[in-house]
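[Target chain]
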Amino acid sequence: MEGLMKIRKGTARRIVTALAAAASVALVVSGCSVTGATSNQGAGGGDSGTINALFMKQAGYSESDVNAMISSFEKKYPKIKVNPTFVAYEALHDKIVTSAPAGTYDVALMDVIWPTEFASKGLITDLSDKFPSSWKDEMLGGALTSAEWKGKYYGVPWGPSTKLFYYNKAMLAKVGATGADVTTWDGVLAVAKKLKDAGVVKYPLTWSWSQAEALICDYAVMLGAFGGDFTTSDGKLDLNSKEGVAALTWMRKTITDGLTDPASLTYLEDDTDKSMAAGHSAMQLNWESAFRDFNDSSISSIVGQAVVTPPPTGPTGLNPGVNGSMALAIPTGSKHKDAAWTFIKYITSQPVQDKYAKSAMPNWKSSFSNPDVVKTNPEVFKAAGQAYDKMINRPEVANYNTVSQILQVQLQNALLGKVTPQQALDAAQSQASAAKD
């Protein structure tokens, strides 16, 4: 059908099928065991020594979550010690690349957009022969593909993820609005204008529009809502499509209309999270873990006021989330691969992931049909289950980081009003196509 978003074959299509099925089962099945996940708990085997693990300190599992996982792992496997390093997402890619020759890290967290680059350059270990055959049935299919390249597995998924929509229901109520009024992006703008005109909040909208990957993720959601994609059906970059121009024009207009906080141009997800938690904004896109933060009275002044939903629909009727899944890999330079594998199996196991479902969604199909797990984070399970059904991928190219950086610069140029959206995306298409070649 003309205008429908071109969700890429492969990763996106597989993740949506498995997740949609799992979410449906959750409504009717009371729960079941997962043999592959259970086997991960065994205390035998492993190796010994000290391993260095690289994580990020932004969305998803918090530093305290990871440290708690490490503590429980070390009690179970006393011969293995884990030294964690936490860096901002923006530093994670380069940290993996620059540390690879020295074998600094034994475990590294990688984004869904990096396996093509890392595997093709020999930076991460092929783990296919270590994967239990049962995982292909017990894990969400799309989660598995988050670390797949050319049919081989180079990491173990550590939770499917996408950006969801959050709004403050108490603020909306002050202008007579409800959740039904913000199910479309046009509705979001209309409510934002009411909030601003009524003086409820100076800037109703905040975004993660710093010149970073966060901007690409927000733009991906809007691009999909306008019926676009980053590539054509045959995999060629399509950055200056009419849908892309329309999406970027919409984004820029929220700034010129005074609805978006101009500070959004310097914000990452943590900043938008803090803004809404402090009552300084009413609506935003953010990862699943934001709902946890909004309901933590130690850091939030809006406990009980935040509502989480799938992204609103655009003029095409589409509302995709951006594929933000992560996986844990073993760098090829690691000297402790056995111990690293034992650690990865443990923290990606179903019991561990289920325990921390408030921070990140589990990889395991049966978690979505286990009421004891779903009840720990029912609002996010419901919203995420729907959002995972429609995912847009960022460009799957070996030099993704270069392409992304080009697009970040040009998107910011348009958002700052330095050039028009058309000029910005024409420049991005030209530069990225040259870099890709």
